[in-house]
Amino acid sequence: xxxxxxxxxxxxxxxxxxxxxxxxxERERALAQAGYNxxxxxxxxxxxxxxxxxxxxxxxxxxxxxxxQGDETYAGSRSFYRFRDVVQDxxxxxxxxxxxxxxxxxxxxxHSVLKPGDVVPNNNHFDTTRANVExxxxxxxxxxxxxxxxxxxxxxxxxxxxxxxxxxxLARDGERVPLVMATVTNNTGGGQPVSLENLxxxxxxxxxxxxxxxxxxxxxxENAWFVKTREPGQSGRTPKEIAREMFxxxxxxxxxxxxxxxxxxxxxxxxNDDAWAxxxxxxxxxxxxxxxxxxxxxxxxxxxxxGLEEVVEEPYLRYRIRSIEYLHERLVAAGVPVIQPAGGxxxxxxxxSLLPHVAPLQYPGIALVNALYVxxxxxxxxxxxxxxxxxxxxxEKPPAMDLVxxxxxxxxxxxxxxxxxxxxxxxxxxxxxxxxxxRIAKAPAVLRHFTAVFEPLAA
Length: 459
Ligand code: F0G
Prior knowledge:
- The protein is an alpha/beta fold.
- Helix content is 39%, strand content 12%.
- It contains 16 helices and 14 strands.
- Strands 2-8-7-6-5 form a five-stranded mixed sheet, sandwiched between helices. Strands 9-12-11 form a three-stranded antiparallel sheet. A two-stranded parallel sheet has the order 1-10.
- Strand 5, helix 7 (196-208) and strand 6 (213-216) form a beta-alpha-beta unit.
- Helix 4 crosses helix 10.
């Protein structure tokens, strides 16, 4: 019997969409028009779009088929009950509150339970999570393990929560902590997983200090795959069994179904506590919609329900994680500094160490993102001093890392697309001396990375 080493895409392509090829001068012009902020480009002017893995995946034929079965009943839609049953089968949470995407679940939860001066511990809050905590005048406190802040350091569960630091926070500031969170996988820190053992440790501390524990579960299936392949004693379990245990350790979750829901839109809030669920539902009705649709169409609920079933399939997860690792290996072999090890949804380039001649507050991540676009038509995203450098008091402080994330949309690009990306990154890294920093010409106070306008600094 033959034993194959090649891990192939576990699907064949039924429908295709052309990508547009542009010339370098066209891209230079487009970027200048976009204020040197790739968020402001027209998507059509991007050849390979690695801005985000959120909502950008390809849905399966089964999902498109389910969409045609969507029930658009305002209250009590059949599609809601199908969605609720799938979510409950996976997570076990008593209350399932649909939302149009992850940040809506965050806003509803935080607005319902936080008050000014509160503290929310997490391994790392991602951008909208942090902003939704801070808008309530609470503190988003990042407590990832020290290894999680050092790009080159290898650790199997670099997204783990620093349990000693969490214990200290709960002992010192416990009265101000309404809930504890953990983000799986840890997006800000490089798409790095959290071990089951660590989640159990968080649970024990939450029990001791009587605090509810919520998962930011956007990439729960990718996290479950890392647990299966890296955590002692877990290799014999299915990703779904592992995911169920992850959820069973929590009292609720916020979820963006645009990631591991394999859908273009959607999310939910899972809650066990009846009183919290009631508060959240009341706010949901005010801003999102009735509790059986929460800002989604019936057909969206169908797509998410089916997506949550497909995302825990082993052939899918094996291919998914391997395809990220493949790009990572190529960059490592060429000496490009990246976060070690490969993450679950993206490769993160360490822009600060690639471009030591660009100071953190001259935004090395933006310099690299923009060069990748101009040279190759590839769009990545800065996760660094622009995204996280502005403090609530208005001052600037560079975060632990200046990264460029190349997020891989699910089931969208083939291996030759990824080969092109590797060639482009290696080529741009070789011309690093020519890359210059930027200054911010104009930016809003909150979530400035989305709309800021930059000016290139002179050589
Ligand atoms: N939590 C994490 C860890 C995320 O990565 C995101 C979104 C959200 C919450 C919010 O979910 O977009 O559905 O409102 N991250 C995307 C990204 C946008 O590019 O990583 P959302």
